[in-house]
Design brief:
The protein has 416 residues and is of the alpha/beta class. It has helices at residues 16-32, 79-92, 97-105, 112-118, 133-144, 159-162, 165-173, 182-192, 208-212, 217-222, 243-256, 272-282, 285-288, 302-308, 323-330, 343-346, 361-372, 375-392, 395-415, and strands at 2-7, 35-41, 60-64, 67-72, 123-127, 148-151, 176-179, 199-201, 230-234, 261-265, 291-294, 311-313, 335-338, 353-356. The chain has two domains: 2-205 and 394-415, Rossmann fold (3-Layer(aba) Sandwich), CATH 3.40.50.2000; 208-392, Rossmann fold (3-Layer(aba) Sandwich). An eight-stranded mixed β-sheet has the order 3-4-2-1-5-6-7-8, sandwiched between helices. The chain has a six-stranded parallel β-sheet with strand order 11-10-9-12-13-14, with helices on both faces. Helix 1 links the parallel strand 1 and strand 2. The two termini are 19 Å apart.
């Protein structure tokens, strides 16, 4: 099979859908000997699409683990002019503001549509909404009569990003849609009347052996964590991830279990400075010393970070899937998340994790304390999560299901 993936970012760019499409691309090559091409923008993250001061990757073509990657130069000089205009028209509910928001989001990629249209392979898959390249890809595939699969990675609770009817009109025009959770699937069917036959729920995956073999002892030694109880957040330091709530929840945790340490590990964003100011203004110097900040780490180091922690806390305000929960389970760790978005369809409260109300740092602290005080419960939830990973979320299982979607789309096109 000759496949084109169109995604806004690709390794070393950071983000959930970026990592997902990288791994699916590489696994299709390795497991099925498919030919996979990736078209992508040259930003490290989505901030680069609206802020021309952000660093960029060099445009061009290269091979990465058997995948042919072409990076297009992004045009990012409209972010500042559109910023206030799109926000004002959104707040006022003016007609057409969804289009302004989409152009503001970007990425604006000159030449992408023509290249997708001229792609000579079997099918195209694109991720993720609400970004502009999804519509560019749809138009190009329609002009070339090319099969198209969308991976939306929707966050319905984010009204600014996803309350855009144009997204759901586009989904209805694609040949198929891969939803990352039942929550996403049900939202599309019940709210936007997308045909259930078009949607397949798959989700992301992990390599369990990488996490089985990881040793967290070196991480603890290197950062002076010793044998202290360790709560960890591991992921990009985005505004929606609830890290601010986690920091505030630790004040109550420290009142009862003062020896607990907090690890915040992940790529910084524009929100990082807010978090640092929050720590300085809300925590005492003693409390600040109980936090270890690790701004960047190699992907190979991630299993050791999960292995080092006792509890993985990821109180995101909305997720389309939450691959970090799967990674924590692969390491046999209990997880704490929020009862919002797709998370309850991934994490079973009281079975393989604990869910707290969103934005409620008091409830979050109670969940953390419950686990800190019960090693048996930590072990029970962590092992239940690991068993779920082995049943549903290995890359071998996920890739096989992904390819079944591609095969079905091609067969239906050929019948037509």
């Amino acid at each position: 099979m000759d496949i084109l993936h169109v995604v806004h970012g690709y390794f070393p760019a950071l983000g959930g859908s970026e990592r997902l499409m990288q791994r699916i691309s590489e696994s299709l090559v390795a497991q099925y000997s498919d030919r996979v091409t990736v078209y992508t923008a040259n930003g490290y993250n989505a901030e680069a699409f609206i802020d021309h001061s952000q660093p960029l990757l060099p445009p061009g073509e290269l091979e990465l683990n058997g995948v042919h990657v072409r990076r297009f130069a992004v045009f990012n000089h409209l972010g500042k002019p559109l910023s206030y205009l799109q926000w004002l028209t959104y707040r006022l509910g003016l007609p057409g503001n969804q289009y302004l928001r989409t152009w503001y989001n970007g990425p604006i990629i000159p030449g992408l549509g023509r290249c997708v249209r001229d792609f000579g392979g079997d099918l195209v898959a694109a991720a993720a909404f609400p970004l502009l390249h999804m519509y560019t890809t749809l138009k190009a595939c329609q002009r070339a009569d090319k099969p198209l699969i969308f991976i939306g990675a929707l966050h319905p609770l984010n009204d600014w990003g996803y309350d855009r009817p144009m997204i759901y009109r586009a989904i209805q025009q694609a040949d198929a849609y891969v939803a990352l959770s039942n929550y996403e699937r049900n939202y599309l069917i019940e709210t936007w009347q997308v045909s259930s036959e078009k949607i397949t729920v798959i989700g992301g995956g992990v390599e369990p052996t990488r996490f089985e073999q990881a040793d967290g002892a070196d991480v603890r030694r290197r950062y002076g964590l010793d044998d202290y109880p360790l709560v960890a957040f591991i992921g990009q330091q985005g505004r929606s991830k609830g890290i601010d709530r986690l920091i505030l929840s630790m004040k109550r945790v420290w009142q009862e279990v003062p020896e607990t340490r907090l690890l915040i590990a992940g790529a910084p964003t524009n929100f990082t400075s807010y978090l640092q100011n929050l720590i300085r203004s809300q925590l005492s110097s003693v409390e600040q010393d109980r936090i270890t900040y690790l701004h960047n780490f190699a992907e190979d180091a991630k299993p050791s970070l999960f292995a080092a922690c006792d509890i993985f806390a990821y109180p995101s305000r909305y997720e389309s899937f939450g691959i970090a929960f799967i990674e924590a389970w692969a390491a046999g760790k209990p997880v704490v998340g929020c009862n919002a978005g797709a998370v309850p369809s991934i994490v079973s409260d009281g079975v393989d994790g604990i869910l707290a109300p969103v934005n409620d740092h008091v409830s979050l602290s109670q969940a953390l304390l419950r686990l800190l005080k019960s090693p048996d419960l930590r072990h029970q939830l962590g092992q239940a999560g690991r068993e779920k990973v082995l049943r549903r979320y290995t890359w071998e299982i996920v890739t096989a299901r992904w390819r079944e979607v591609y095969e079905r789309v091609l067969n239906e096109r050929n019948k037509g």
